[in-house]
């Protein structure tokens, strides 16, 4: 316990940019580590980028084909024997409340690679993840390191607006992804939870580039402002609608799907204000959840919104997709939502919520026979219910 307190104190006292160097010095002293490296997941979720002391990304490793990537995917430590020696590399997932930040790799002598030491390293990796989230307020080191290429300005604005890409609670798990990751335009997701409720939104903004990002920024912040004022879901939509109309006078609007879920009962309030779709997998049955379509936010002055109700059951998976997903056409011209979307939801049924969006978006890209997608968003919600352990 004393060692853990010393590690925690040292990381908290470290300069924001120097967390890895501080950890290297600690683990060298305490466990005779000969190398300590941090790999961060990139914005596209396809590679792990080495976080170097310079603050710039170094080596890139494929998530799908590396021991580090397998540790990230399984969320379990992986061991790798170092060639020509007895040292062992320990790859430990760095994850905070379900958000898969990256992997910490620690090289130890073989005799130091005991279950007790591995347990300590798990604790260190967990602590490091939380400290990175705090440090990112004060340094760009970790933001720069995870970029496999330069973000467009529109994408920069969108990523800074987002919550984490994944979140896990005792009663639910969330995962979401935007594509193309380095040039996203108007799509967005948002969520927040408290003791009683989970509120989430999926937004499909019109337009491209900076204008689309500005429109979405206004919409999301208007929704947050109304939500934090404590008003109901319909009033949140109405106030955001008013803010957008006051600024754009109907020349631009935002399609949004809003949900508020009562955590104790699974009872859902939903406002469907536009194009994002919601699909449900219950057991082996997959179907689109049809809601009464209401006006997109900002299209008309003083639109009124009425929430609809339904209930999620333990074991339900909800999939939210923007039109960049369900409207995608195959080379012969068939819409993705006609048959392929249900097949893909079924094919990813065993994946955790954090991994589903990336898998679905890759399937959409394959469906249209392209390396990347137009603006597209997938959000996955797994509902465990109040009795989940």
UniProtKB/TrEMBL annotation:
Compositionally biased region (Basic and acidic residues): 76-86
Record bears the keyword Nucleotidyltransferase: no
Keyword list, A-Z: Hydrolase
Residues covered by region (Disordered): 54-86
Residue ranges constituting the PPM-type phosphatase domain according to the UniProt record: 169-383
Keyword Metal-binding (UniProt): no
A family per Pfam: SpoIIE
Name this protein carries in UniProt: Serine/threonine-protein phosphatase
Organism: Streptomyces decoyicus
């Amino acid at each position: 316990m004393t060692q853990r307190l010393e590690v925690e104190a040292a990381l908290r006292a470290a300069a924001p940019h120097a967390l890895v160097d501080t950890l290297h010095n600690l683990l060298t002293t305490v466990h005779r580590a000969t190398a300590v490296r941090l790999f961060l997941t990139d914005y596209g979720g396809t590679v792990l980028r080495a976080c170097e002391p310079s603050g710039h990304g170094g080596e890139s490793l494929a998530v799908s084909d590396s021991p580090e990537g397998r540790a990230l995917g399984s969320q379990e430590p992986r061991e790798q024997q170092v060639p020509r020696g007895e040292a062992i590399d320990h790859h430990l997932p760095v994850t905070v409340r379900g958000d898969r930040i990256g992997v910490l790799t620690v090289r130890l002598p073989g005799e130091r690679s005991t279950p007790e030491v591995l347990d300590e390293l798990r604790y260190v990796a967990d602590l490091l993840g939380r400290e990175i989230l705090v440090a990112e307020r004060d340094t760009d080191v970790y933001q720069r390191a995870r970029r496999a290429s330069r973000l467009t300005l529109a994408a920069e604005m969108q990523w800074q607006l987002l919550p984490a890409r994944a979140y896990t609670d005792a009663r639910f798990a969330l995962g979401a992804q935007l594509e193309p990751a380095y040039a996203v335009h108007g799509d967005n997701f948002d969520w927040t939870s408290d003791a009683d409720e989970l509120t989430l939104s999926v937004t499909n903004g019109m337009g491209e580039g900076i204008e689309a990002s500005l429109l979405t920024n206004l919409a999301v912040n208007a929704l947050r402002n109304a939500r934090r004022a404590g008003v109901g879901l319909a009033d949140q939509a109405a106030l955001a609608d008013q803010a957008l109309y006051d600024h754009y006078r109907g020349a631009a609007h935002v399609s949004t799907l809003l949900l508020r879920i009562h955590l104790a009962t699974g009872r859902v309030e939903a406002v469907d204000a536009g194009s994002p779709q919601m699909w449900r997998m219950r057991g082996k049955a997959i179907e689109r959840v049809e809601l009464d379509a209401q006006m997109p936010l900002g299209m008309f002055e003083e639109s009124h919104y009425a929430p609809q109700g339904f209930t999620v059951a333990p074991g339900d998976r909800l999939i939210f997709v923007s039109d960049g997903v369900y409207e995608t056409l195959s080379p012969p011209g068939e819409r993705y939502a006609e048959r392929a979307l249900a097949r893909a939801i079924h094919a990813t049924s065993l994946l955790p919520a954090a991994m589903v969006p990336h898998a679905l978006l890759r399937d959409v890209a394959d469906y249209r026979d392209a390396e990347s997608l137009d603006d597209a968003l997938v959000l996955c919600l797994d509902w465990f219910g109040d009795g989940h352990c």
